[in-house]
Description:
The radius of gyration is 15 Å and the shape is globular. The chain is α/β, with parallel strands linked by helices. The model has no long low-confidence stretch (mean pLDDT 93). It has seven helices and twelve strands. It has a seven-stranded parallel sheet, with helices on both faces. The chain has a three-stranded antiparallel sheet with strand order 7-8-10, with helices on one face.
Amino acid sequence: xxxxxxxxxxxxxxxxxxxxxxxxxxxxxxxxxxxxxxxxxxxxxxxxxxxxxxxxxxxxxxxxxxxxxxxxxxxxxxxxxxxxxxxxxxxxxxxxxxxxxxxxxxxxxxxxxxxxxxxxxxxxxxxxxxxxxxxxxxxxxxxxxxxxxxxxxxxxxxxxxxxxxxxxxxxxxxxxxxxxxxxxxxxxxxxxxxxx
Length: 196
């Protein structure tokens, strides 16, 4: 694990822990129902979720991920709304104040939000404030907030805190989660889904 400010580019992250991300994506897609409105964060795990959602017949998906928007646009049954904002090329995503503002009038059924750190004390964190700002706003625009993070991110803290554990209903992770970490997070009130 690097320092609290390090994140490899999207293209490098896409191949890291790919098996775990695909399992998480399958578990996430199982929580989605036809006709729902979904907020889908940027990032490689969320892009794997998009690949699963692409098979649905009828959804509305709001995303700040360029890759996800392009993937979902291939299905005419999915209304894809791309969040405006400053494009951050290394993430292939829109971020910043414009993206945050764009989300203000939107209300969705579920938000799937990715984090680079999940810690019992710090809560959910990411590497920079632009991403933190957009993720925070996404979380306020959904009835249910579902965090996605592979097990390597559990017990880690990144530079910018996004939310406390109590601000997320469910965390989907992989079977690499340490049993003690799972117990501690569940004791704090977080529902944990371990993707098999």
